[in-house]
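FAQ

Q: What does a record look like?
A: Structure on top, sequence underneath. For example:
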């Protein structure tokens, strides 16, 4: 950088944002954007979990109906059973992650009170 350019930047930018010090003082990522993305992803995960739980409830409801009618030997029952197991595995995998991330948000909120 030439001396004239450096002098120009020092006139229009405060020292903290001076181009020569950019690597030292400027964060490499905007933490506000990162926090917003985190919150958006958490909300999407909450919505997906709630949809999965509702779907699981419907599957189990239909399975109970078939069982009460003594139709557990039907292919439909076996298919519902397999779908229910797969769905429950996904719920079991993602619920703890959601709860952990939700706790992070709660802890941050509590620390700012």
């Amino acid at each position: 950088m030439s001396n004239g350019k450096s002098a120009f930047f020092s006139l229009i930018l405060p020292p903290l944002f001076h181009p020569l010090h950019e690597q030292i003082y400027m964060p490499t990522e905007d933490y506000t954007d990162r926090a917003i993305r985190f919150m958006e992803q958490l909300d999407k995960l909450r919505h997906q979990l709630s949809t999965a739980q509702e779907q699981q409830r419907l599957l189990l409801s239909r399975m109970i109906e078939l069982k009460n009618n003594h139709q557990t030997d039907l292919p439909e029952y076996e298919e519902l059973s397999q779908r229910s197991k797969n769905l429950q595995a996904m719920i079991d995998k993602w619920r703890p992650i959601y709860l952990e991330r939700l706790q992070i948000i709660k802890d941050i909120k509590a620390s700012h009170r």
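Q: Is there anything notable about this one?
A: Confidence is low (pLDDT under 50) at residues 1-18.
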